[in-house]
Amino acid sequence: MSLVPDADGLTDDHLMLISTVAEFAQSELLPLDRAWDQYSGAVYDVLPQLGDMGLLTLCVPEVFGGLACPYRVYAAIIHELAKWSPSTSVTVAVHSMVGRIIQKYANDALQDMCLRGWAGVKHFGAFALSEAGAGSDAAAVRTMAVEEDDGYRISGEKMWITNGMHARWFLTLARLQGVPDSESLCAFLIDGDDPGLQRTQIHGKLGIRGSETAVIHLDQVFVPKDRLLGQHGQGLNVCLSSLNEGRIGIAAQACGIAEACLEEMTSYASHREQFGQPIGKFQAVADMVADSAVELEASKNLIWRAASTVDRGHSDRGACSMAKLYASESANRIAYRAVQVHGGSGFVQECRVEQLFRDARVTPIYEGTSEIQRMVIAAELAKKAG
Ligand SMILES: Cc1cc2nc3c(=O)[nH]c(=O)nc-3n(C[C@H](O)[C@H](O)[C@H](O)COP(=O)(O)OP(=O)(O)OC[C@H]3O[C@@H](n4cnc5c(N)ncnc54)[C@H](O)[C@@H]3O)c2cc1C
Predict the structure, then answer these.
(1) Ligand 1 centroid vs 325 CA: distance in angstroms?
(2) pTM
(3) Which of 264, 367, 371, 380 is catalytic?
(4) Which domain holds residue 205?
């Protein structure tokens, strides 16, 4: 069951790519994802393979060697990846979001340098916005930038950075010293190979354990002038406008997890017998399956609608937030039901829904919590109401 409700405007190549990714994810990524969750290792180990398949350059223009997929196709691919490996999907989603920011805001030379190699391990991207004291309130960042003749020196600490252990490029929000507050927030592209950047892995996560999460320490890291993205004072806009579209990726991740849960619970309900019949024949269990199917379908439609606005060239903030809010919260409800339908069997590691239940939990938290999505949706409605 793909995310694509109708193939309108998509080519046969797009549809073929989506189904190829689905097959690859099921056969190759699923066993790895299970191992990353229970033992060790991370998506980084398969990055070269993902790059060879074009999965790291889904949104990169063809002129740089990318696949230049419509955003709907990108969302459908994130959904297929998430169904079999939630950790791979968020790794690809964050890397892709950083690529889109570079494409939108970097000068030609920087675009050429980064995006031509975007399929390679050496150009892995991360989005470094959050800090210990600045989560939902992104504008509260304390990471400092000091301007010098030919660039900036950046110091501070970024928290929770996906892809942070191996990324080369960090899209970073920092506060420029010595200018009025309104002009102080700036977005920089930091080269992780430059002196002064250190990484510390965050261990002990509830879910998506195959996805790297790191604290990034910045000690006087030098950034040349041309790696300021946007103007002084536009940094928050650069980050938030990108996050807006990025949220579709997290919605697609949640939707993939939800679809896996629905398939697991449907299959289990038709095989497991109690009181002499399959449990799926009991109304209470059938209700859980039916409610999950309806919510999954609603998620897909919200995601498709939001991704379509991006493809039409004017991403709709409200639509992106609705997709993220609904897909992530319904994925958690569906994962809960999947465990419930499995009874005690769903409570142990051997059962995949146990992992999916934990993996789903982060989706209403990162790239803007559900509470923040509701604020965005209400604000957009208020704006339209005048
Ligand atoms: C696994 C993982 C990966 C992540 N990856 C990245 C990454 O790659 N890059 C990055 O920059 N960040 C990343 N994050 C950080 C993530 O985006 C933040 O955790 C998230 O934005 C919430 O911020 P916080 O944790 O500081 O919570 P807080 O902002 O402190 O929020 C705590 C609670 O208060 C609520 N709250 C806060 N403000 C309001 C309000 N105004 N109204 C109502 N409720 C409110 C929140 O909704 C939440 O329920 C990641 C986080 C995790 C867990």
Answers:
(1) 14
(2) 0.98
(3) 367
(4) 125-231
Atom of ligand 1 nearest to the CA of 368: 21
Element (H, E) at 217: strand 213-224
Question: Residues lining ligand 1, judged by CB closer than 6 Å?
Answer: 94, 127-130, 135-136, 160-162, 205, 213, 362, 365-369, 371-372
Secondary structure (3-state) at 67: coil
Give the CA distances from residue 46 to residues 4, 53, 118, in Å, rounded to whole numbers and listed in that order. 26, 11, 15
DSSP annotation of 166 = T
Give the mutation target among 87, 130, 205 for probing the ligand 1 site: most ligand atoms within 8 A of CB.
130
Task: Give 232-244 as a DSSP string.
Answer: TT-HHHHHHHHHH
Find the CATH number of the domain harbouring 56. 1.10.540.10
**139 and 109 part of one domain:** no
Q: How far is the CA of 369 from the centre of ligand 1 (A)?
A: 6
Q: Is 367 a catalytic residue?
A: yes
Q: What angle do CA 267, 273, 275 make, to 5 degrees?
A: 145
In a domain, 181, yes or no: yes
Specify the residue for token string 């950075």: 161
Please choose from 129, 190, 365 the residue to mutate so as to test ligand 1's pocket, defined by most ligand atoms within 8 A of CB. 365
Which of 123, 147, 163 finishes a domain? Answer: 123
Ligand 1 centroid from CA 136, angstroms: 5
pLDDT per residue rounded down to tens, the chain (386 residues): 789 887 778 999 999 999 999 999 999 999 999 999 999 889 999 999 999 999 999 999 999 999 999 999 999 999 999 999 999 999 999 999 999 999 999 999 999 999 999 999 999 999 999 999 999 999 999 999 999 999 999 999 999 999 999 999 999 999 999 999 889 999 999 999 999 999 999 999 999 999 999 999 999 999 999 999 999 999 999 999 889 999 999 999 999 999 999 999 999 999 999 999 999 999 999 999 999 999 999 999 999 999 999 999 988 999 999 999 999 999 999 999 999 999 999 999 999 999 999 999 999 999 999 999 999 999 999 999 98
